[in-house]
Design goal:
Elements lengths: L1 H23 L13 E10 L4 E4 L8 E5 L4 E8 L2 E6 L12 E5 L3 E5 L1
Antiparallel strand pairs: 1-4, 1-7, 2-3, 4-5, 5-6
C-alpha cells in the first residue's frame, strides 16, 4: 500500500507541475521585450542576407546569439529604432532552435508580410 500511495503522490505532483507550467507560459503573440519602444502588429518576415547576427538586444553592443541566413523565417513582434524583436519560426540555417527570441536590424529583412 505505501508504494501505491507514493506512486499516486508522484503522479499528482507531475500533473500539477505540468498544469502550472502550461498556465504560466505566455502565448506566442504575447512575446514582447521591455526594450521595445513601439509595437508592430505580429507578422512574418524573411531574412534577406546570410551571416546576419541575431542579437540579445537592439544594437551592435549586444551579444550575438548566433547567425541567421537568407531564407530564415521570423515572427516580428515589436521594435526599437531600426531594430526588430523577433522569434525564429523554424530552426535557423545557422542552427538556432525554433522559438529563439532575438533582435535583428530591420534592413536585414527581405520581406515583411502582414
Amino acid at each position: 500500500m505505501p508504494a501505491a500511495r507514493r506512486l499516486v503522490t508522484v503522479a499528482l505532483a507531475i500533473s500539477l507541475i505540468g498544469g502550472a507550467v502550461t498556465a504560466l507560459a505566455p502565448a506566442a503573440s504575447a512575446a514582447h521585450s521591455y526594450r521595445c519602444t513601439y509595437n508592430i502588429t505580429d507578422h512574418n518576415a524573411v531574412v534577406g542576407y546570410s551571416g546576419v547576427n541575431y542579437r540579445t538586444g537592439p544594437g551592435l553592443g549586444y551579444v550575438s546569439k548566433g547567425l541567421l541566413y537568407r531564407g530564415d523565417d521570423l515572427r516580428v513582434y515589436c521594435g526599437k529604432s531600426n531594430w526588430a524583436y523577433t522569434k525564429l519560426i523554424h530552426r535557423s540555417k545557422g542552427g538556432l532552435r525554433a522559438g529563439t527570441l532575438g533582435w535583428i536590424r530591420k534592413d536585414m529583412l527581405l520581406q515583411l508580410a502582414g
